[in-house]
Amino acid sequence: MITCKEFLNELNEFLDETVGPETKAELQRHVTECPNCFVIVDTTKKTLKVFRGVTEKMIPGDVHDRLMKALEKKMAAKAAPPPTS
Amino acid sequence: MPASESGAVADPGVFDESALVAKARAGDAAAFNDLVTRYERKIFRLAKHITQNDEDAEDVLQEAFLKAYEHLPDFQGQSKFYTWIVRIAVNESLMKLRKRKSDRTVPLDEPLDTGEDVVVREIAVWEDDPEKKYSREELANILDEAVQSLRPAFRTVFVLRDIEELSTEETAEALGISVPAVKSRLLRARLQLREKLTRLFKRKGDNVFDYM
Ligand SMILES: [Zn+2]
Prior knowledge:
The structure holds 2 protein chains of 2 kinds. By secondary structure, chain A is mostly helical. Chain A is built from 5 helices and no strands. Chain A has helices spanning 4-9, 11-15, 21-33, 35-54, 61-79. The N and C termini of chain A lie far apart (75 Å). Helix content of chain B is 59%, strand content 4%. Classes of the chains: A mainly alpha, B mainly alpha. The interface between A and B is large, with 39 and 47 residues. The complex binds zinc ion (ZN). Zinc ion binds at residues 4, 7, 30, 34, 36-37 of chain A.
C-alpha cells in the first residue's frame, strides 16, 4: 500500500479526477483503508464546496458605473487622437 | 464521487469570445463593452480575493480593463481573452499588495516549492453542514479570513483554480509560473484552508485518532 505522504502528494489529482485508472484505483484503495486520509479527502472536498457555495458573484452597481465611465473616457480619447501627421 | 461536485460551471457554452474580441480589435466599442460586462464580476471578485480590499479591487478592475483596451492591438489571440485579462488583473493586484507590503517580510516571488513538506495536523470529521450554523455574512468573513491567511503565492493560485475555476494550464499562464508550481501551490493552499476550516467546523470530541 502507498504511504499517506504519497497519497497526499496525489490528493489534488485524486480530487480533480485527473489520474489514470491504475493510480486512481491505488489511491482509492488507500482511502478505504486509511481513516486519516479518508477524512482528509472528505474535509478537503467540503472545504472546496463551501468556498464555491458562497463566493460572491455580484459587483456593486456604483463600481460597475465608475468602470464604464472610465472606459468611456478612454474610448473617447482614442476616438479623437491628437493630430499626428 | 458524484460528478456534480467537480465544479459547477455557470458557462452557457454558446458564448463566442473570439468573435467579440475580433470586433473589439476592429474598433467596435460595443463589443469591448460586452467583454467587460461578461467578465467584470469575475475580475472584481478575484482582485478582491487577492488584495482583500474593496478599494484596491476597484482600482485593479479599472486598471485591468483600461490596459486591456489600450493593448488590445497587441493581443495575439493565442490565449483566451479571459486568461489574458486575468493575467493583467493578477499583476495589478500583486502590485497593490507589494505597495502595501512594506511592513511584511515575505516577498511574493520567494521560492516556495523547494522541499517544503505537505503537513497535515488537524484531522477531524466535520459536523453535518457546518456552514449552516453561520449567517451568510459570518461565513463570508470566515472564508475571507482563511484566504487572507494564505501567502499571496498560494492565495492567487487558489483563487484562480478553485474560485474562478481556471484550469491548471490557464492558471500557470495567467500567473506566468510552471504547471508543477501551480499544482504544488494549490495542494498546499487547499490543505491549509482545510486545516483552518476544520478547526472551526470539526465535530466536537470526535477525533479520528481516538479510534486508532
Ligand atoms: Zn493515509
